[in-house]
Design goal:
It comes from Brassica rapa subsp. trilocularis. The chain is mostly helical and about 350 residues long. About 75% of the residues lie in helices and about 0% in strands. Among the domains are: about 15-60, no CATH class; about 255-355, no CATH class.
């Protein structure tokens, strides 16, 4: 201050130059951050201060929200969509194989269920393709297979298709099913096992050889019947493997199961459970095995996981358990009564070993 009354402009003293050295995690040191705050408060060199704030920081190196995190999140979701598309293709092949199996046995209700499964799965694939999660060329090939499969099964069911064409279709789904199933089982445990196409390629060669031998008369009559039943069994095993894969995923990442709906799992349990009585009554071991497995492991197994992780109430779990036990018991009791057996275990014995 001057004695003559002149007014002096007092500027803030410039802070010492900070050393902005980035830490290994990409975050500046605390002293540098404090100096930035001083610069901001005193408005010293605002251009330099703004430039520091605009330096991009990788989202994986900072806890501060950044638009790039949305990109990474969507990238993760698109990867899940792609994985979902592969899973849908597996389910679609299983539905087509079982549709052919039930159409050949003239099981109208079961064939309708599998047809609805094919259509509903195809609708999901259409949505995945529109979202860009499924390559267009794969979708076109899948559409061709679905169209041909539905048309051939419909014509065969109503007696409008020759045995030669039907035999070629059966060979196709047999080779496809046997090739896909081992590959799915192997891929479930990646990266615990090396990522390889060897299981699928090996199964493909074996399936082609088995079909050729069956068609050229190189197998016995029993062997031909065995090859003819392979498509149905591989389709059943595909659906049986789905809950195994789901449970393995839940074991590795328990948080994933929180996204499941208990009501959806109950509906899955009920849908598969409703087919148990018919499969038992006509003594179809393959159908019974697939329905029982899906009911116990896919439906009830996931309900049990939800309950253990406190994702559903005790009363809901108890109701599902009581309902499942009651339904299976009722099916066994009514089947034994219909056949005049004294014990429901007699029906199970006939199912496995024959009358």
């Amino acid at each position: 201050m001057s004695l003559t009354g002149n007014r002096f402009l007092i500027l803030p003293t410039p802070p010492p130059r900070a050393s902005f050295r980035a830490s290994p995690g990409g975050v500046t040191s605390s002293s540098a951050v404090n100096n930035c705050r001083v610069l901001s408060l005193t408005r010293w060199n605002p251009i330099a201060s703004t430039r520091r704030r605009l330096v991009p920081v990788r989202a994986i190196d900072s806890d501060i929200p950044h638009p790039i995190k949305e990109y990474e999140k969507w990238d993760a979701w698109t990867a899940k969509f792609s994985g979902g598309a592969n899973g849908m293709l597996t389910g679609l092949l299983g539905n087509l194989s079982l549709l052919s199996y039930f159409a050949k046995k003239r099981e109208k209700e079961a064939a309708v269920v599998q047809t609805l499964g094919v259509i509903s799965t195809y609708v999901v694939l259409v949505q995945l393709t529109m979202a860009g999660a499924m390559p267009v060329q794969y979708f076109v090939a899948t559409s061709a297979v679905v169209t041909v499969g539905l048309v051939l099964n419909c014509l065969f069911y109503f007696g409008k298709l020759g045995t030669t064409v039907w035999g070629l279709w059966e060979d196709f789904i047999t080779v496809g099913g046997l090739s896909v199933l081992p590959q799915i089982m192997w891929s479930t445990f990646v990266p615990l096992v090396p990522n390889s196409i060897l299981p699928g390629a090996t199964a493909f060669v074996i399936a082609v050889a088995a079909v050729i031998m069956a068609r050229t008369g190189k197998l016995s009559e029993e062997g031909v019947r065995f090859v003819g039943s392979l498509s149905g069994w591989t389709a059943t095993l595909m659906f049986m493997w789905m809950p195994v894969s789901q449970m393995w995923t839940n074991f590795l990442n328990p948080d994933n199961i929180k996204g499941l709906s208990p009501i959806t799992m109950v509906l899955a349990m009920m849908g598969n459970g409703l087919m148990i009585p018919q499969a038992l009554f006509i003594r179809d071991l393959m159908w019974f095995t697939g329905s029982m497995w899906a009911t116990l492991f896919y439906g009830y197994g996931n309900i049990l996981c939800l309950y253990m992780l406190n994702c559903t109430s005790k009363s809901f779990f108890a109701a599902a358990t009581i309902g499942l036990i009651s339904w299976i018991g009722l099916a066994l009791w009514r089947d034994a009564t219909a056949y005049g057996h004294n014990s429901p275990f007699r029906s199970l014995k006939e199912l496995v070993f024959g009358p």
